[in-house]
Amino acid sequence: MWRYLGLVLALLWAQQDAATRALLLKYDAKFWWLNLQVSHTSMTLGPSWVLTRAVVTAPALDTLAFELHSALTVDSVYVDGQKRSFIRRGHTVRIPLNPQPSQGAIVEAIVYYRGTPPSTGATGIFNRQSPSWGNQVTWTLTQPFYAHTWWPCKQILTDKADSVWLFATAPLGTRVGGNGLLEGIDTLPAQKVRFRWKSRYPIAYYLVAFAVAEYIDYSFSVNLPGVPQPMLVQNYVYNNPQTLPTFQAQIDTTAALLREFSLRYGPYPFWREKYGHMMAPFSGGMEHQTMTTQGFFTFTLTAHELAHQWFGDWVTCASWQDIWLNEGFASYSEYVALQALGTPAAARNWLIQTHDDIVANNRGSVWVRDTLNDGRIFDSRLSYQKGAYLLHMIRFRLGSDSLFWAVLRQYLQDQGGGGAYQADFQRTLEQATGTSWNTFFQQWYYGEGHPIFSVRWNSTGGGLWVQLSQQGSWSASVPFFETPVELRLTRQGQPDTLVRLFQSQAVEAFYLSGVGTVTQVALDPNYHILRQVDNLTQDPTLGVEGVGAEGLQVHPVPVQVGQRLRASLPGPGTVEIRDVTGRPLHAEAVSPPSWEFAVELPAGIYLLLWKGAEGQQAISRFLVQP
Fold this sequence. Notes:
Immunoglobulin-like, 10 helices, disordered N terminus
């Protein structure tokens, strides 16, 4: 969800107190039916009601609770067809039950209410006139905690209802947009009209939404990969002679974006219903399930909100701490869309601008520590941009686009229709690659900052020496980032070439043989990682003397192909040889204090690692020459 700075909610309603949350956790919401009286000229809700069907999850349900802002008046409450007494306590409605339904029982409650939601501070419903088009609109935007300001609900991310109906009665001449399929429009007395929206997909509380205004319906259908029938794209655009002509070309790109994302991520999740947009006067968008609310249309905004239907709606973050699963993935989809449907220059510009915005500040974690802070949850630099760059770096580490897309599709398949934590995505990634990603997420996701590099290089004898020195921009959090690094080598009389190294310690030397005469070195020219470059220097003194023992004594140094490398070991354990990318090449158990190895390796620098039985380690680097 994108927001401009003027759309900052000044006051924040605190999450449920412990007692309220304990009551809400006693049942599992299965179905919501909202029947609302709304108007495009006011936020006031006429006599309305919400039906909730739920399954009892506690041993017994002594109190049925809903969250509803105290500014709204509750007229009556019915449970299983019987009128019940209720208690208003803060922003909750508590309904004592006697007899108490037992675990597994289905209960059905209807709350009748009305009133004017708060117009300032922490609110999830708005009424404004478009400054550009003059249209008056009432719309909802309840992320993260504000659904209770306009309907009685349960605001817990891990409890999705299986389906939702939204019936909205509004003045004749207006249209009401909502979730799912429009199954009917009823003309009612007193110049009223009722729109009946029904969705039969799982949905989180904050994705239930409506918007009412004088709209026109601009709809078309699209054929999508993996979808057996044409799908509806339904757009509610201001009934203004110039609005649709202004935005029609951009709205039409929705079809190409739907096809592209369906190829990358799997078929559009809600294809049995629709996708579409409903306009509202704010400078951004909100990914309401099957019908995004947008203030205007640009390529990246439309791509971002559409991508949320996969990442955020179909799979919803199970905790606001892991909002990157929504916002980072949708933000990276802007880049994916530009790569596929835009120009190479536009895609590169997006990447560079995003990168530079992130590294402009030395601090900040993608993981959200303070989930009561609305501004921190939706911090554009951290949750959106840095979250997007995490995916970009994962894509680089994998080294295979086909594997990257397969990981995303598997994650959506594993978690589809429910909620996910960061650990769920990490598990899918580890299962797909057969390797641990703990270090990556500890450094890049939970940690703060980014690496700052200092590079020395020297071209001699057709080979290249490179020394990478690195420190974290906020070393109190992450002093060093273990990462692959790409170098572009400009060579005399030969085309430029890219080489990939893996830096596993703060200062590390590498030797690349047979690359020719190098005249210039660039670090990470394609912006694969977050980084700053402090300096990049050609140093003619850099050479073999930089490769020696670091805890292990090895000889000879350098060693020739065909010779035997010998090492004095601290004791029994295991010995590994790795290349400069960190890839294991040889491993064996050792018991004597000395070790020998017949060298049959390509020329270059290698790492010799000894691990003792009690976790001790010692390393050395050795140079292999032809």
